[in-house]
Specification:
The chain is mainly alpha-helical. The chain is built from eight helices and no strands.
């Protein structure tokens, strides 16, 4: 176990708060994006009934759950490369917001423009050192848990 991990990253409550914030913002932003996309489709296609809208939202929520939950479970299991899926999720959300801005009526565009800040904030959190420390923490915890805990206790004393 290298001491350089503890020299490069500061592990604290902010590290884990950043990791949780990324997951929450992905879920909130994705839910809003898919709901607005469904409303945009409903607004532009007269055949899109309320039942079709609910079916779309159910399928979209399932898709959102899969692309958000599974990579984050993999991250907590020590596979930091799964964070790339979160990055792709952010780009997908931004693309959906762009489509909604183009197709929605003018009165709803400001809501969409305000909601674009959520994936942008998520992206900036994912680029931070605290999120990188969160990824390193889980990776090191699963490589050699005993040695990592001993080094962490040694560093805290």
């Amino acid at each position: 176990m290298k001491d350089s991990i503890f020299d490069r990253y500061k592990f604290g409550i902010g590290t884990f708060a950043t990791g949780i914030a990324v997951i929450m913002l992905l879920i909130i932003s994705g839910s809003a994006a898919l709901s607005l996309l469904g409303l945009s489709i409903k607004q532009n296609f007269s055949q899109f009934s309320d039942d079709n809208y609910l079916t779309f939202l159910t399928a979209a929520a399932t898709f959102l759950a899969v692309i958000t939950i599974i990579p984050n479970i993999m991250i907590t299991r020590g596979k930091p490369k799964a964070a790339k899926v979160n990055q792709y999720n952010i780009w997908l959300q931004l693309l959906i917001y762009l489509v909604v801005i183009v197709t929605f009526e003018h009165t709803h565009k400001w809501l969409t423009v305000c909601l674009i800040s959520l994936p942008v904030l998520t992206n900036s959190l994912m680029k931070s050192n605290k999120y990188a420390a969160c990824l390193v923490y889980f990776e090191e915890m699963h490589k050699n848990p005993e040695a990592f805990r001993k080094q962490l206790l040694k560093k805290l004393k």
